[in-house]
Amino acid sequence: MSVILTSDGRRLVQVAAHVDEDLKIKAKAAGINFTQTFVDALKTKLKESDE
Fold first, then answer.
1. What is the pairing mode between strands 3-5 and 11-13?
2. How many Cβ atoms from other residues are within 10 Å of residue 26's Cβ?
3. DSSP string covering 1-51, please?
4. Beta bridge partners of 3
5. Tens-digit pLDDT profile for residues 1-51
6. What is the pLDDT of residue 1?
7. Rounded to 5 degrees, what angle do the CA atoms 10, 6, 39 make?
């Protein structure tokens, strides 16, 4: 697994997700950022699991 080190010291890794093709097409047409959406969803789920 390759790691990208950002200038502020964060370590980033690439992940893969499989989604229905029509969801991908609609999201792209709507200008939805997949990476940011995925990160936001993970943060929300982790917050919920801490409660």
1. antiparallel
2. 11
3. --EEEPTTS-EEE-------HHHHHHHHHTT--HHHHHHHHHHHHHHHHH-
4. 13
5. 799 999 999 999 999 999 999 999 999 999 999 999 999 999 999 999 998
6. 77
7. 55
